[in-house]
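can u do me a favor
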């Protein structure tokens, strides 16, 4: 569409001219890989309410139910591949001067597409954390046996993700804030911008002078605050932006 093209051209120009770039992604960037989003049609929360499952209270009340949901999500995640949107961001990360990829997602599709040093604000489905000794381990076993999984110290393990009402891990949050404050351009891709404190990052970037570019097929809580909002899918828009950056811009 006409307006899309103008916005994509503007976005490519800002990305090309920026030395410091930050990107914030949400579940929408993994939608074209076949992973359900949280709030979209057929989304994860459709079948469950977040309060029911993604909270410490739910886990304390019924660890087996919460683990069955996460074990199912791990089995779905194990079968999907990164899409063109993930790959475009991996390409941008290789080309940009300073680059920070910050994700709310608990999948590992950015890493699978070749992105490095991904900042996970909400943890990872592939990390298990002991409820007693706090030991964290990577575990890609699908399905998990036994369920709930058990730490070598004998205590039950929990998913290594951040639940509602839990604080975000200090280091990733500090990294994300620093990146948002320094960025000259922030791309906000595939997030409804409803969950805090992640949703505050684009506002921090904007207040620090960055150009904020949203990529989302729908309007969100952030659309009005963005300098450009490209109405489209990440897997289509991001490769288009990168094509213009590499075609017209200084190659590396
Ligand atoms: C905290 C990990 C404080 C687990 C997740 C009232 C009551 C209770 C709490 C609160 C409250 N008000 C505010 C809060 C705080 C709360 C919050 O923000 N709640 C919201 C709902 C109002 N936040 C918290 O609780 C956070 N912690 O505040 O702690 C504290 C401090 C100190 C000490 C103690 C406590 C913790 C939040 C983290 C929760 N964990 N996930 C798991 O995954 O199981 S959140 C979950 O939602 C995911 O991480 C996800 O990333 C996140 C946000 O969702 P999105 O990624 O945006 O996904 P969504 O489906 O919403 O949107 C998808 C978008 O993609 C859409 O816009 C769609 O249009 C678009 N899209 C679709 N297809 C495409 C596309 N875009 C591009 N291309 C496509 N093809
Ligand atoms: Zn332990």
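np, heres the sequence
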């Amino acid at each position: 569409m006409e307006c899309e093209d103008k916005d994509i051209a503007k976005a490519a120009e800002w990305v090309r001219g920026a030395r410091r770039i930050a990107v914030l992604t949400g579940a929408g960037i993994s939608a074209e890989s076949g992973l359900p989003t949280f709030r979209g049609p057929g989304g994860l929360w459709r079948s469950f309410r977040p309060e029911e499952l993604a909270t410490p209270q739910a886990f304390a009340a019924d660890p087996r139910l919460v683990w069955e949901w996460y074990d199912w999500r791990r089995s779905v995640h194990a079968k999907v591949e990164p899409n063109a949107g993930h790959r475009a961001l991996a390409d941008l990360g290789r080309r940009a001067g300073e680059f920070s990829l910050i994700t709310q997602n608990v999948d590992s599709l950015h890493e699978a597409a070749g992105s490095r040093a991904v900042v996970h604000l909400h943890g990872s489905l592939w990390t298990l954390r002991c409820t007693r000794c706090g030991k964290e381990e990577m575990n890609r076993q699908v399905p998990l046996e036994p369920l709930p999984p058990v730490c070598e110290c004998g205590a039950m393990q929990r998913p290594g993700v951040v639940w509602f009402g839990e604080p975000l891990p200090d280091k990733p949050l500090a990294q994300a804030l620093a990146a948002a404050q320094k960025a000259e351009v922030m791309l906000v891709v595939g997030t409804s911008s409803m969950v805090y404190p992640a949703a505050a990052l684009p506002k921090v970037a904007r207040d620090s002078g960055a150009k904020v570019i949203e990529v989302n097929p729908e309007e969100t809580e952030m659309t009005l605050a963005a300098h450009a909002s490209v109405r489209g899918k990440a897997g289509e828009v991001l490769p288009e932006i990168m094509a213009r950056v590499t075609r017209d811009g200084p190659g590396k």
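The mean pLDDT is 93. hope that helps!!
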